[in-house]
Fold:
Amino acid sequence: MTDWSELELDALTEAFNVGVGSAAAVLSKMVGAEVVLSVPELRVVDKAAALASFGLAVSDRICAVVQPYGGAFESRALLMFTEARSYDLVRAVVPDYMTDMQMGDMAQDALIEVGNLVLDACLTAVGDLLACTLTTRVPALVKGEAGEVMAQMEGNEMMLLHMLFSIKDKNIDGYVGFLLDQQAMQALQQAVARFLSAHL
Structure:
């Protein structure tokens, strides 16, 4: 697994903080209420350990917005919620829409819109920090048991953020993961190292 220094992770965490702050401002307009998205410590783990790091069991049902991206390096960004939390988020974004535990087209579109907003904001901030181009592609919504969803994702390592969504006095846990293969992870680390060398 790629060995990151504390300084390198701190630099990326700051970039994600900027991106999340931008996403929170736009989300606030969407839901008509203050939205706070917190960004805790950044971690890099093997894909096999990602679910445990999120506190999820392989059988837990989740909804994940998957955003492929390329450019400086190829990867997939994921915004994941437990199934129950995903319904809570949709109710916040589309008030009074859901009357039962079903994920209709409007609900799925709302989740994809939120996922695209948050992930694109994070990726844009990282690209700006590292002066590299990251291009996003069409996002998709994947649902199912956490273990099965994770098994479908290409890449060996995950860069993890655990974000707490505070919307309309509701705490909605969201998990952000960036799946990278060894080559992509090394390319990202090299870009961070160049940034630090130029600014320290």
